Input
Amino acid sequence: MNTPIESRARRRALKTLAATGMALGGLSLGLLTPAQVLAAAPGMPLPDEAVADTLVRLFGDRKPQPAGEHIKLDAPLIAENGSVVPIRIESDLPMAADNYVKHVYIISDKNRRPLNAKFTLTPESGRLSMATNVRMAGTTDVRVIAEMSDGTLWEAKQEVKVTVGGCGG
Amino acid sequence: MKHQRMWIVGLAAAAFATVQAADFVDTNQSRATPEAQGGIVDGKQKRYAGPPFGGVPNDWSEWPGYRDDKPYPAPQQATLPADLKGDADNGRKLYMSRAKAPCTGCHLIRGDDVWPAGNVSTDHQQIGDRYATPEAEAVLYQYIYDSRVINPQSFMPPWGTVGILSPQEIVDIIAFLKTQRGPLPEEKDPARNPNTRPLPENYFGDNLDPTNNAAVVLAEGAIDTWTRQGPKGKSCADCHGEIEKMQGIAAQYPKYFPLYRRVMSMEDLVAWHGADETGLELPSQGAENIHLALLIRMQSNGMPVAVDIESPEAKAAYERGKALYYQRVGQRNHACADCHDADRGGGKFLGGRLLGKKTDGMTRHFPTLRTNFAQIWDMRKRMQWCMTPLGMNYLPADAVEYAEIELYLTSFDNGKPISAPGMRH
Amino acid sequence: MATGQVRIRVPDGVKAGDVVTVRVLVTHPMEVLRMEGGKPVEKNYNFIHRMAATYNGKTVFEAETTQAVSQNPFFSFPVKVTEPGKLQIQFEDTEGRSYTGETDIKF
Output
């Protein structure tokens, strides 16, 4: 049985091979820079991105509306370091077959690359309730954006102050 | 100094033991990993390569430590140089410079960019009102240069005497401090001010849940070490049985062992007794050592700490540990007590970090996951890192001095439940 | 740290139709970007970039993760279970290795 990752990894590996082959072909013609060839590897650094650009990249011209009571975002007000910042999300947004939270995005505005992670849920998820630990480069707003199956966006936002320096522990 | 003598007696006894049938094991030679021994290579201490130790460029070989009687400079009179003019802007930079101290670790000044400031010592937001005259300025100069001249009880490092701040730099800082005057501006953010900042919440969740604390997962992997036969044909399990049989054992540690004639933590015991019996190499600060010591300690989770400080040997070790805790060492002339006694820094903010208070007990969660470095630290690595703000090179992880300080500290945890591995920032 | 160990925790006493909160952790260094001279060092950093959970073979939750997810990634997520079965969770890092954990959910 192929798990989704296996099959997707295989597809991507094939795609990466194809891309590399093409890129190398391109290189021989002097059309692509080495950086573009390297960009095919999934762990290569991506360029810095301002949060406004991240939002446009992810959502185009769709603007998230404040989720108010619909999303409860639980993050520490003060995090003693930015390496492990727990984020908990509870929501009463619908999870019905015809209208459900399809994706959840966690975005730390001031990070070099603001998108921390993107999650995909299904109507079988039953209820939006999830958690993870993220990294923050420093004091920043963290946003959780829920994307409904119809493309509607809901946003919850909170500032996390990250203290640095000192020793402690 | 008491310690120094004990050390020499130990060496003499060790020499004797090689002639006689050994009735104890000489532990003077460290059994820590090379970097955890912190030996001097090319005139500089060889420290852990990884964070955070790897980022500290200093070598403090010339300054007094627990094991030597290198002299510390006597209090020095200092006169405000009349020819120097202070630059307040540069003074503020120096005041906030992490490389210099930073002063904001202990003192609060004005400014939304001052984040995070500590409150170990005096609030400086209005110090300019208190030191407005030229005479007062001279006092301030002496205080920063070497506070011991004015107040022998002061635990501020003598910045001028030890050469961390030059006369010009001190004059710049004074020029800056003079700007800290008049009514306080409204505090926009209560968290900026350490006196109104909320205490850190425990936001890491259940530290004993393996889906929350990776240290649990790694320690559970040490069952392989527990059951692995070494070159001597024995495993830990061969003598001790199932790991669960270790329940309650770690609560008694650190503990005095006649065989080693010293106090040992569980990590020390793994490095010495564990290695001697099985033939496995389990050096202090090696991953196997820490994971196994943690796995053994986890068997006592929820049980009250019960270290012996009454038997004559334990009592003597406790007293030496206490003396070391109060002993001033390093370039900064600090003692453990400066940060962890309630009448000094204990329970206050050092920069953004809340300092542990000795009397609350500071040992029950060790070994602990340091989330910011993704490393598991036992008490010893914690102590080794504590040497950095003291301005002292660290001792080997299995040093008896650390074992005795650990016994002294652990005594404040007596009766309180073990919960290891902890999770800390 | 031993990389790629997966731990899954589901609550006891699950009944048909319950929304179960699954907790999962994988030990992984999630290598951090290094900067030199103000620029990222160009190399293939090793971090988990994908995670997927299946229940009885059907995908129920997926994550695309970046270096801005903490070391030893942890996730908790909901699954509505209507029948007993096998929950399988797989992680893949940017060096192409994958790590799998599974657990049975019984009623």
